[in-house]
C-alpha cells in the first residue's frame, strides 16, 4: 500500500520540508514540496492513499530526518520535471559515464509555490551547465497544476486527475548561440505492475542502461507492454514516431487495482534531444520507461516523456507543454474496462 498523503505532509513538516496542499473541485488532492518542486502526493476524494510512489524513508519522521541529512541527492518520490539532454546535464565527465550528478539548481532547486482557488504552480529560475557543449544556460521554468475531468465518467470508480501546464524559457540575451534544452517529465510508481504504451507501429525499444529482458517485454503492431519486476534496474526509450501520446501503468493493490494514465502531446517532427548514452547521434526519443531497484534511490518505476527542445537549433526559445494525468482505483474488472477505453483493446 502507498503512503497516506496527510501522513507524508506531517512527516515532511517534522523534517522542516515545506509543503503546500491543494484540493480541486473534482475532489483531487495534491501535495507539493518546495524541495525539488515535486508533486509528492496525489489522491482522490474517496481515499487519501497516494497514487504515486514515495520513498519508504518518509514513513517516519526519524527515518526522514536521517534521509534528508544525507549529502547525496535524495529521491523523495512522486512526480517531477527535469531537463534534457541527460548526457549534457547529468554526466560532468562525459564521455566517461561513471559519474552521475543531479544538478542541485534543478533538484532541489529554489522553487517558489503560488496558489489560486483553482490552481497551484511551482516556478524556478536556474542556470544549468551543459558539460559537452561547455555552456551555461539561464532558464525560467513554471509548472501549473489544474484539475482534469474524468475521461470515463460512465464507469463508477475512484478517480483523481490533474492537468500540468509547464513552460520553459531561455533567459540569455544571446539566445541564438544557446544549446538546446528540453522538458523531461518523470512520474514514479511502485514496481510490480505493467507499463502499457500504445503505439502506431511495432515499436523498437532502445536500451539506455541495464538489461531489458525479453520475457518482460511484449510487442505487437499497436502495443508495447512491459512487465515491471521487483528485480534489477534498466531503462529503455521509444521514438516519437512510434507512440500515440498516451501511456498507462497498472498495479495490484490489496485486492483492487490502480491505473495511472498520462495523456501528453507528441510531435513526430519535433526536435527530441535526449539520446542513448552510447549512441548520441540518435535523436527523436520522446518516451522512456526507467525501472530502479537500488538502496540509494529506491525501488520504483518511472513513466517518462520528453518535449521538443528549445534553443538555437530549434529556432525558438520558449515552449509550453500541456498533459493530463488520470488515476483510477477499484475492482480489476472496471480497471480492465478503462484500459480498453483509454489504452488498448489487447488483453493485459
Task: Give me a quick take on this structure.
The protein has 348 residues and is mainly beta.
Features:
348 residues, mainly beta, Beta-galactosidase, Chain A, domain 5, six-stranded antiparallel β-sheet, 19 strands, 10% helix, 42% strand
What is the CATH domain class? Mainly Beta
Shape: globular
Alpha plus pi helix count: 4
Give the N-to-C terminal Cα separation.
22 Å
What would CATH call the architecture?
Answer: Distorted Sandwich
Estimated structural class = mainly beta
Describe the protein's architecture and organization.
The protein has 4 helices and 19 strands. The two termini are 22 Å apart. The relative contact order is 0.16. The chain has helices at residues 5-14, 61-68, 86-90, 332-342; strands at 19-23, 29-33, 39-43, 79-84, 112-116, 119-130, 135-147, 158-170, 182-189, 194-198, 206-210, 217-220, 223-227, 234-239, 246-253, 256-264, 285-294, 298-306, 318-330. It has one domain (79-342): Beta-galactosidase, Chain A, domain 5 (Distorted Sandwich), CATH 2.70.98. It has 348 residues and is mostly beta strands.
